[in-house]
Design goal:
The protein is α/β, with parallel strands linked by helices and about 400 residues long. It has helices at about 45-55, 85-90, 115-125, 130-145, 150-155, 160-175, 190-210, 220-225, 245-250, 255-260, 385-390; strands spanning about 5-15, 20-30, 35-40, 60-65, 70-75, 75-80, 95-100, 180-185, 210-215, 230-235, 235-245, 310-315, 315-320, 345-350, 375-380.
Length: about 400
């Protein structure tokens, strides 16, 4: 059973300009010991999705009645969106769920020392004495690479550098040993050495406590090092989801291909970068049909009006949905993909993951092989021909 199940999450905000859609029909699961990477440009709805799990969005947030967030702890299922009282919300606000916030300066209380804030949460959620909580807090500050941790423990957030504040925020989130950790850009402000230490620390905690992690980042390189599975978001929708190897090696959606094409090539450092064309639209001007059609290099007329469906398929399958019968996927018309209709699986990647977690899709080594672990991938059906997508992509991941 999944540790966290998010189903059909749709979230809107009431504003002076009207009701804006921030997240639309998002579904994913995280199992114990599994790392799910959530990637996409700024404004894609990643942080809003994460805050929904802890009910931290502001009072003007409106959840669709069909939305569901279920947290499973010791065979007890908690309906997160039904929690109202502060005492009931403790389980998802520092108890079983912790969050590394994107901006630690805005998350730490400026008039209270770092140590006092760490001790308070351990006393509240873990029932420790202040002395026990102090010892645990200083040890965790040391584990995330903060030198002279006992001195930093007694300092205020404004006395620390940006990178040190980020490490203190990571230490605070990890000190409660949560079942689910939400990491919102946890390594952005860190240099590569400390970044590696933090990633190694997360690996150790996953192995030790079977912790599930929702890892939000812009950095596909970090995702390749840390995640078992990845979900790609654009303008509040998950457009592609699957194993790290499957998504990076054989991306099915044009937006995913655009993100990968935008990465520098280590075999050709002089090659110009290829950004995703255009800008992400404002929620006030949300496109009809496929939300990516205003920037898509292979947009078809149907994309303007038709909302792509989500195709469910095997754990490692990559999928592209098409209009018409132009299924140029490298198979003959008599092959297994001939004559398939939009929304059907068109190809399968049986290579295994490169992730670090120990969940159902954890790394078993790079190469070809069968994956029989349970689970469902959801990849947005894209209304373009397979041939056009293939020609548009310049990605080759070995």
């Amino acid at each position: 059973m999944a540790l966290l199940s998010v189903n059909n999450l749709t979230l809107q905000f009431d504003t002076d300009e009207g009701r804006l859609t921030a997240v639309e029909d998002v579904s994913f699961e995280i199992h114990a010991g599994e790392v799910l990477g959530l990637v996409g440009e700024s404004g894609s709805g990643k942080s809003v999705t994460a805050k929904s799990i802890m009910k931290l969005n502001p009072d003007n947030a409106v959840y669709d009645p069909a939305s569901s967030i279920q947290l499973t702890l010791d065979d007890q299922s908690i309906d997160v969106l039904s929690l109202k009282k502060g005492r009931d919300l403790r389980v998802v606000r520092g108890g079983a769920v912790s969050m590394i916030f994107q901006e630690p300066m805005a998350s730490f209380a400026p008039a209270i020392t770092i140590g006092a804030q760490m001790v308070e949460q351990l006393v509240l959620h873990k029932g420790m004495t202040e002395r026990e909580a102090t010892t645990v807090s200083i040890e965790m500050l040391e584990r995330v690479g903060i030198s002279d941790a006992s001195k930093r423990f007694a300092q205020y957030a404004f006395e620390l550098s940006g990178g040190m504040r980020q490490r203190a925020m990571i230490a605070m989130a990890l000190s409660t040993r949560p079942k689910l950790l939400i990491a919102d850009e946890p390594t952005t402000a860190l240099d590569v050495t400390i970044q590696a230490q933090v990633i190694d620390l997360m690996k150790d905690l996953i192995a030790e406590f079977q912790m599930g992690i929702l890892f939000i980042t812009h950095d596909l390189g970090v995702i390749a090092q840390t995640a078992d599975r990845v979900a790609v978001m654009y303008l509040g929708k998950v457009v592609e989801q699957g194993s790290v190897r499957g998504v990076i090696k054989r991306p099915a959606h044009p937006y995913t291909r655009g993100l990968i094409n935008a990465l520098p090539r280590i075999d050709d450092l002089d090659a110009p970068l290829t950004p995703v064309a255009g800008d992400i639209p404002s929620p006030l001007e949300r496109p009809s049909g496929c939300v990516f059609h205003t920037r898509c290099p292979v947009m078809q007329p149907a994309c303007r009006d038709t909302v792509p469906a989500m195709t469910s398929h095997g754990v490692e399958a990559r999928t592209v949905s098409v209009i018409g019968s132009d299924l140029d996927t490298g198979n003959s018309d008599s092959g297994k993909n001939a004559g398939q209709k939009p929304g059907q699986v068109m190809g399968q990647d049986t290579g295994q993951d490169t992730g670090i977690g120990t969940g159902p899709d954890a790394d078993q080594g790079i190469g070809e092989g069968d994956t029989t672990a349970p689970g469902i991938d959801h990849t947005a059906a894209c209304f373009v021909t397979a041939r056009a997508v293939s020609q548009a992509s310049k990605v080759e991941v070995s």
